Amino acid sequence: MVKLADEKNVTHDSDNQVFVSASFTDNRRETPTPTTIRIGLLGCGTVGGAVARQIVKANDQLVANGIRLEIVRSLVRDTAKPRRDIPPGLKLTDDANVFLAGAYDVVIEALGGLDAPRSLIQRLLARGTPVVTANKQVVAANGEAFASAAEQGGTQIRFEAAAIPGVRFLETIGRPSITGGVSEIAAVLNGTTQFVLSSIVAEGLSVDAALHRAVVLGLAEPDATRDLSGLDAADKLRLILREAGVETGEAIVPASVGVDAITPQITADAARLGGCLRQVALARIEGDCATAYVGPAWVGERHAFSRLGPLENCIALRDATGARTLYAGVGAGPDITARALLSDVVAVATSTIAAGRRSVRRIKIRANIRTPWFVYASFRRDPAKPEGIGELLGKCGVSFRRFETASAAVGASRAVGITFPLDAATVRDATKTIQEVTGGTLLAFPAIEDSTHGWASKRERLDRLEARRVDSPAKS
Ligand SMILES: NC(=O)c1ccc[n+]([C@@H]2O[C@H](COP(=O)([O-])OP(=O)(O)OC[C@H]3O[C@@H](n4cnc5c(N)ncnc54)[C@H](OP(=O)(O)O)[C@@H]3O)[C@@H](O)[C@H]2O)c1
After folding, report:
1. Which residue's CA is the closest to the ligand 1 atom numbered 18?
2. What is the extent of the structural domain holding 320?
């Protein structure tokens, strides 16, 4: 802001025009004395360690804005454990009571797991200490309890780092809506599976080999069970739904077939239909119910999800008016997670909105989502002929919009297709029955194309605009 230094230098000439001969003070360059934000750090492992390292860089930017971040103390299991590149002088304790005795403006939770973080977060919020966390598991399971504790303590909990760390979208969908709120969510929410599935396509790797590479690159934890099974994405979907104003009351159960069932062959056959496989989280909210699906899906090549890079995640939201919004960004890795946590710390420090309880309505979650399905069948050639599998599925109520057979080794055959929209239960029952009859493998994943959850390509949008222009020529 430029401030007029000395009013007496303002003079008027005979025509009463104003001449200003004053000297100006340009206080844009003045650096305000920074306010120190005292941080308590729960955990100093992969993410906590990255937070400790990133704070040094963050302060270079923040000091000019009047903020300085400082870690007062960190809680760990073993204070003697060697820790890579941790700033010297960082105080560690293995005693939760010593940690809780500290005075903090914000606490960052990076412990992981459920029980220890739940009780610590609960106590901190109840006493009025704001908390930020990257722990989707604990937030998904305790969202309501944390909201109550924060209300009781007059404070807030933020968890932007727990969904897609590289993208701030939760605070947007968490605002009271002027359009009736979110009605549909389609998202790719897990960094590990995105990397694994991209590596299968790009290099023909198996899930195990791709996962090994992700662990070596620091993009996945050695135990990736929660990622591959969909439990991690299901937790994220639940916490996103909560931010959108609906509480499921119970965990969302992922599909029984996870990403670990996907082979390079299935991936190649998915590509024959012009698409690729992704792990997705889908939810459609209708009144007091929502249908949800978390697991592998076939994504058409024109859909935004098919163009995501190996490190990218994405969420597509549709509101009650039908308008759609897409957020995409980096979805995995300790450094991006640390930056998202620190960004939440700054949001807490600069927040002017008093903590308050948002209105959340309780909904029932059903797994019976209705969508077109990608069906993959691999079975012995005899007695079930490849052409026959489509007919068998048709008899069970599964009819195809596209269907292709692929010859394979002698004595075996494969077929892939995209069905018309069907309920999950119909597809599940049909594939189970036919699997029993043929003794083969039948997999069915939702098929997502532009018409269901997707976004039109630039070409399609231009075509539509062109069609509209032709239909209603501009009045001259
Ligand atoms: N890793 C990622 O890229 C990533 C990305 C997004 C979100 N997250 C989330 O971030 C959280 C932390 O993950 P992480 O990978 O950083 O885990 P991690 O490497 O295992 O680190 C956990 C830290 O917490 C400490 N700790 C754990 N339980 C404790 C207890 N009961 N009492 C005291 N200290 C305890 C550990 O102490 P010691 O060091 O002494 O063992 C360690 O410092 C998880 O919720 C995870 O889902 C991780």
Report:
1. 45
2. 175-331
